[in-house]
Write a structure and sequence with these properties.
The chain folds into 2 domains: about 5-240 and about 255-260, Aconitase, domain 3 (2-Layer Sandwich); about 270-410, Aconitase, domain 3 (2-Layer Sandwich), CATH 3.30.499.10. It contains 14 helices and 18 strands. The protein has helices at about 5-15, 40-50, 70-90, 100-105, 140-150, 175-185, 200-205, 205-215, 230-235, 295-300, 305-315, 330-340, 340-350, 400-410; strands at about 25, 30-35, 60, 95, 115-120, 135, 150-155, 155-165, 190-195, 225, 255-260, 270, 280, 290-295, 325, 350-355, 375, 395. The strands form 5 sheets. Strands 4-3-2-5-6 form a 5-stranded parallel sheet, sandwiched between helices. Strands 16-15-14-17-18 form a 5-stranded parallel sheet. Strands 10-9-8-11 form a 4-stranded parallel sheet.
Length: about 425
């Protein structure tokens, strides 16, 4: 039997000819991501007793979760991180004007096919859209990597998803991943490597593939992966740092399961409160009164997403009594959307334009909800308290559905 992508990557980084599912391997990741949690990681690092970070080029730190700082506590946190970066001579630091960590990591060329990437954020899985093995880890594990350069991993089994058909024009990658979550559940890929394959994936550009791999974390997956192709290579051109090696599963590789769906008849989807796998057709929830709409974050804050929202809202107005917050995922995206008129169209429609950062997604900053309020968001989680209030409700949707909802003031997917 052949080997899966994840077996090949972990064998290569462990310096072994092959590895088995369930085997524990010691690896040296190319990079380890952290963000505003870097101050806590630095404290753990100090307890380890190593005076210097093993490889100053290995960490990638992006300040994004509460950027700029919302209060003295966050400001102190950022100050400690900046001081640590300077003292240690770390090579890859991106301050508050950069954007959301996962978008910055991709845009700055750290992700590439065949690389092994870890990060102290569950949505590190995003980088699988570039053909990398990318997985979330804990803060203490990140501190250990800073100190030693290495970490152990258990080789996961692989779930292969084959998505067929022609995606309807009113559906996007967000509808696809919500559909999958509704079918397999929030633990449907627990500690598995998920391979997204099939004609639907092949038709997507890298920006859309990032939506799928980002939300692989919501399936419980260790990593999500899309086979690199010419679209991947074109996206990496001019961005990627260093050389890379494309790695593919063997044709006779062993999978834990292969699931196939024809998505030709897919309808817009929403994840209803308070679980990411509580997925229904958006049409079932039409008419639900909405107080706030969020377009952006690491899941759907790319240029394509902003274009999708602007196409709905251009020449129209956000409904009275509904707030629309727009968070571009990075400063380059912000600048592109400003140059091509997208931001002007959104502002004219009544949107509130925010700086590139995580915003209300984690409930710490810019756009937290009040008791009883309802939000439709293009982000990736909707559990109680996610946007700062245990008594509010969050629906997850595509940028198109979110924009239509902002236009009408009630959840809707039809213009």
């Amino acid at each position: 039997m052949g080997l899966t992508f994840v077996q090949k990557v972990l064998a290569r980084y462990a310096g072994k000819p092959a590895v088995e599912v369930g085997e524990i391997v010691n690896v040296t990741p190319d990079h380890v991501l952290s963000h505003d949690n870097s101050a806590a990681i630095a404290k753990t690092f100090a307890k380890i007793g190593k005076p210097r970070v093993k490889d100053p080029a290995q960490p990638v730190i992006v300040l994004d979760h509460c950027a700029p700082a919302a209060d003295s506590k966050y400001a102190t946190n950022h100050k400690e991180i900046r001081q640590f970066v300077t003292a240690q001579g770390l090579k890859n630091f991106f301050d508050i004007a950069s954007g959301v960590c996962h978008q910055v990591f991709m845009e700055q060329g750290f992700a590439a096919p065949g690389r092994l990437l870890l990060g102290s954020d569950s949505h590190t899985t995003t980088y699988g859209a570039a053909g990398a093995f990318a997985a979330g880890i804990g803060r203490s594990e990140a501190a250990a990597i800073w100190a030693t350069g290495t970490m152990w991993l258990m080789v996961p089994e692989t779930l292969r998803l084959v998505l067929k058909g022609d995606l309807p024009a009113d559906c996007s990658a967000k509808d696809v991943v919500l559909f999958i979550l509704g079918r397999i559940g929030a633990d449907g890929a627990l500690y598995k490597s998920v391979e997204f394959t099939g004609p639907v994936i092949e038709a997507m550009d890298v920006d859309d593939r990032m939506v799928l791999t980002n939300m692989a974390a919501e399936m419980g997956a260790k990593n999500g992966y899309v086979l690199p192709d010419e679209k991947t290579r074109a996206w990496l051109r001019g961005r990627v740092r260093g050389e890379y090696q494309e790695i593919f599963s063997d044709p006779d590789a062993g999978y834990s399961e292969v699931l196939e769906w024809d998505l030709s008849d897919l309808r817009p989807q929403v994840a209803c409160p308070h679980f990411v796998d509580n997925v229904k057709p958006a049409s079932d929830m039409r008419g639900t009164k909405v107080d706030q709409v969020v377009v952006g974050t690491c899941t759907n804050g790319r240029l394509r997403d902003l274009h999708e929202a602007a196409a709905v809202l251009k020449g129209r107005k956000v409904a009275s009594g509904t707030r629309l917050l727009v968070f571009p995922a990075s400063m380059p995206i912000f600048k592109q959307a400003m140059a091509d008129g997208t931001l002007a169209a959104l502002l004219e429609a009544g949107a509130v334009l925010m700086n590139p950062n995580c915003g209300p997604c984690l409930g710490a900053h810019e756009g937290a909800l009040a008791p009883g309020e309802v939000c439709v968001s293009t982000s990736n989680r909707n559990f109680k308290g996610r946007m700062g209030c245990n008594e509010s409700a969050i629906y997850l949707a595509s940028p198109r559905t979110a924009a239509i909802t902002a236009l009408k003031g009630v959840l809707d997917d039809t213009l």
